Amino acid sequence: MDASTSVETHQDPHAHAAEHEHHELGFWRKYIFSTDHKVIGIQYGITGLLFLLLGFSLMMLMRWQLAYPGQALPVIGKWLPHIFGAGTMPDGKMTPDFYNSLGAMHGTIMIFLGVVPLAFAAFGNFVVPLQIGAPDMTFPKVNMASYWALFVGGSIMLTSFFVPGGAAKSGWTSYVPLAAFSDAGPGHNPVFNGQTLWLIGFIFLITSSLLGAVNFITTIIQLRAKGLTWMRLPFFVWSQFVTAFLLLLAFPPLEAAIIMQLMDRVAHTSFFLPAGLVVNGAPVSISGGGSPLLWQHLFWFLGHPEVYVLILPAFGIVAEILANNSRKPLWGYKSLVFSVLVIGFLSFIVWAHHMWMTGMGTAVSAFFQTTTLLISIPSVIILSAFFISLWGGSIRFTVPMLFATAFLPMFGIGGLTGIPLAFNSADLYLHDTYYVIAHFHYIVAPGTIFGLFAGVYYWFPKATGRKMNDFWGKVHFWPTLICMNVIFLPMFLQGMAGMHRRWYDGGQGWNVSNEHTIWGLTGFQWNAPISCMAKK
Q: What structural domains and CATH numbers belong to the chain?
């Protein structure tokens, strides 16, 4: 026996045991303020799904008003004033201001509190470290902070429903000068009003996304397993990687713009307010010199990359499921990777196609029309690669596969119907009509959300150790597929008939759309069957 062995033999066993003593984390540290990427992913997932349910519920109230304008909402209509305030639905009948609040909060909640947390943060946190062989995210505490920033932002948004005057009424885009004067002036608290709380809550949501984006980028670059080179990464990881860069580069300008709009409201600056404004018949006393169009540029500089923040994670999820259930590798892996990289780049130079109505010059219009058409090319390549991946495969139509395959034509319809909007001449007619709602919702609802449902069914056994019921999964899938098409397809027809997207009772759009009948119904009469299918 040598000296080293002798020393080891006579070590204190209690000291050795102390070195390996494991302290079990308590409930709060393990499940609430966790730094484990899997737990945080589940937190994001549950939170995102709950907000999606809330956003859907707000939409259902709007659909009732559009289907039966001026009529009392049965059963729950008499209770809603006790929840949202007496001025929202007197006698169960929706007021115009409350309709505007529902529209603004539906869009904000569904995109920034529903789809983004679920598509990017939930699936990304749970799956990415596992796929690249990382023990956790690079910055676990920053990961925890990003979730709680989202939670605080969402809580502030919800609080805005219960302050005097109700939630924000200036749309999910918060266009000025309307947003600068909404819920402002005598009778309104300078901070605790719907529009100001919307801005404050949004600051927290953006901060959450920025923290998450930095964490994802660092993790994918630094913590990949040895030998896992860039072109060996799963396509899902590539989609999350590009999405993180979109958030990191597009959100800071909007956060700066939100702070400037907040200053316009509470500190009486004029970042976005021009001189000579008249509100309620009286000139506004402000320094002036600001530009309302500056807000639109800063908002849409985020707004269009945001569309790909919603869709790229869904691409990644669908790719995983198609390869698994066709039992063959993805076709054209490198073309898929370069396509998402090109989408990421082009998404930053197409934003002004949301602003054709602002009267930009022909040279600028031509540039943005060209880039908008170009960005459709990598999307078509990705969709084509997915279809080709199915060719010759031994396909299993599991519940995740049903949602994944349905995603392909639904996203295709959304993409193709966006091409007319790329041309300013066509957009002058279609802008702010139901055609735009149909196009965007085909991208996000039967598009992105089908991808998210596929991901939930696909990775639920990995997260919980239990498999979801196939029968009820198919009961979920088929009515959803049918109803979503019945809801959104007629909206293309309504839009081409002249139905405006924002008027709570149809307004002049009622008269315009009633001049044309489509399959025996006028544009506005289509609202009743659409709302009925939404209820189902």
A: 36-275+286-290 (1.20.210.10), 327-536 (1.20.210.10)
Phi first, then psi, for residue 517 (nearest 5°) are -115, 140
SS3 call for 76: coil
Residue indicated by tokens 């949004």: 202
Q: What is the pLDDT of residues 69-108, one digit of tens each?
A: 888 998 888 899 988 888 888 888 999 999 999 999 999 9
Instruction: Report CA-CA distances (Å) from 371 to 121, 350, 361.
Output: 29, 6, 16
Centroid of chain to Cα 85: 28
- Asked whether 236 and 316 are in contact (CB, 8 A), the reply is yes
Please tell me whether the peptide bond between 177 and the residue prior to it is cis, using omega within 30 degrees of 0. Answer: yes
- Among 535, 495, 484, 525, which residue's Cα sits nearest to residue 66? 525
**Within 13 Å, how many C-alpha atoms sit on residue 122's CB side?**
26
CA atoms of 499 and 531, how far apart (whole Å):
15
Q: The whole model's pTM is what?
A: 0.90
Contact (Cβ atoms closer than 8 angstroms) between residue 497 and residue 514: no
What is the DSSP track for 299-332? HHHHHHHHHHHHHHHHHHHHHHHHHHHHTSPPTT
If we measure between CA atoms, which residue out of 118, 144, 145, 119 comes closest to residue 37?
A: 144
Contact (CB, 8 A) for 146 and 154: no
357 in Cβ contact with 431 (< 8 Å)? yes
Q: Which amino acid is at 56?
A: F
